[in-house]
Each structure stands twice: as C-alpha cells, then as structure tokens.
Amino acid sequence: MSKLKIDLLRHGESQFSHTLRGHLDDDLTPKGWQQMQSTIEQHKNQTWDVIVSSSLKRCACFAEQLAKTTELPLLLNHDLKEMFFGDWEGVSTQQIYETSPELLANFWEKPSQYCPPGAETLMQFQIRVLKGFQDLLENMQKQNWQHALVVTHGGVIKLLACLAGQQPLDDLLKMPAELGKLYSLEFSEVDGQLTFMLR
Fold this sequence. Notes:
His_PPase_superfam, 6 strands, alpha/beta, single chain, Histidine phosphatase family protein, globular, His_Pase_superF_clade-1
C-alpha cells in the first residue's frame, strides 16, 4: 500500500468549550468557525481529495460548508467522534475537581486504567477510532484518493499523536491538540497492521 496523507483539523471553540463535551452535540461559536476558517486559509495550497468529518455538529457543519465551497466529496464517520465521558459529559473539570478530585486526578494521570463513571474506556475509544480510520483508508484506496482532510476532535488527534509517536497511552491527555488547528499524519499498512507517523 502506498503512503496516504491525512490532515486532522480540530474543530474550533464551541458553545460548551469550557466543559467535557464528549458526545454532546453543541454548535461552534462564531470565534470557533473563524479559528477553523483561518487555518484552512493558511493551508489553501493543499489539495485534498475528500473531506471526512465526525458526525457531531461542531465538526460536521464546518465540513459540509467546506465541501460545498471546494466541491469535494464529504463522508461523515460516527467512529471519529470524541471520547464519550459518561457522567462527566457537559461538566467542567473545575466542577469535577470540586466533587471527585481523586477520580479526576486518576483519569488525568492514567486514562488507560481509570475512566469517568459510565464512560467509554480508553481501549474502547481506541478500537472505535482505529476502525474509523481503517474504513477511511480502505475507501481511499478504492477511490484512489491520496490525501484526506479529517475534521475531528481533540481526543482523536491526541490518541493518534500518541500512537504515531509510540508514546504510552497514559500521555494522551497531555498531548497538544489546539482548537481549530491542523495536524498532519502519514498512514501506511504493513502486513495488515496500520502504521502512521506525524509529518
């Protein structure tokens, strides 16, 4: 398999950006839209073959608009949604710190072993996200697409950055993934194993 390029665009600021949103479906703020727009303008010499987006509005609305203006195909992918935070959905870390400081500290330090009450585990999240990318890569090969833009979430970008850098998954929450910023990966498949590196 040839190397395939994927650019990951994190959504911009959304209405509940001060909380753990997970699967909550909040809209982008005007500032969030602007953050994404200016990043795309900085990369306007990029030639993407397809735009792929998480199905949540804070990614999908911008992706739909961009697909229209660039006349590129758009694929929505449920597997590329943010991690599901269970009982912590829509709650700020400050509030969690006040009620469950130990649980928050454990999750922050060792997300591979601890997860919020009722949430998806890091392992489940990883399996889901990698399935989403596996499907995308198969699609890219079928269609002969070389370069995709994926509009997604901080958790997804941090997970891929950890895997690409072969860092322990417990570093996940410490990885950078700024709102509205673009991160580039190169994917290849070796003996059925997905490998990718940050470009």
